[in-house]
Amino acid sequence: MAIFENIINHKIGNISADELLKYASQFNISITKGQAEKIAGYLRGKKVNIFIDSERTALVKQIARITSPETAKEVNKLFVKFTK
């Protein structure tokens, strides 16, 4: 399980806006290209473990600050999908 978590967390830290949009579309989550660019820019290089609730919550709060609370909720749905 740790290998799986490491792969997912590494991908989150290196995700591009286009990849984020692709995953959002795949899971029927609504974000714009501009929002995806802001989020991907913020995530780039971050060392975060989305499998730890407190780290994911802090990350989602930061995403809400740079985009909007609604977008952060949508991104959180995507993170939760990744953790299952």
From TrEMBL:
<protein>
    <recommendedName>
        <fullName>tRNA methyltransferase</fullName>
    </recommendedName>
</protein>
<dbReference type="Pfam" id="PF11116">
    <property type="entry name" value="DUF2624"/>
</dbReference>
<dbReference type="InterPro" id="IPR020277">
    <property type="entry name" value="DUF2624"/>
</dbReference>
